[in-house]
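Sequence in, structure out. Go.
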Amino acid sequence: WERNLFYQTPGIRGFFYKENEILIKELDRAKTALDVGCGLGTHLMLLSKYCREAWGIDHSDIVLKHCIKEVAKYENIKTFKMDAKKLEFQDKYFDQTSCMFNTLGNMKDPLPVLKEMKRVTKVGGRIVFSLYNLDSIPERL
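Output:
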């Protein structure tokens, strides 16, 4: 799980930093955030610095095992194994819901996930996601 090697690739690193700027643009310590497809917890660790609570879900046991190790020192991060198409959270709980680094682009049908993200996000809250394909990375940078 050498995530640092991947993120240190110049093009990927630049794109990742731009995504992070958007992700934290309007957050403050009073807010709650959900990261759908949290992976190894990279975005969770960033969100935890700007939010009262940063929650992450992923469907993979293997990925979550590594994520839990990565985020263990952060008291305001919670992680769950969960299907993004059936989020087990109450309606309108989160101030911001995100799905970053092309997680939606890897799904066959992202519409149910987007509907769930909307359901759990407060009225007036933010939904932030990135969606691209590998051919578009040079143009987006």
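Check: Residues 10-24 form the longest helix (15 residues). Helices lie at 3-7, 10-24, 42-48, 61-71, 111-120, 137-140.
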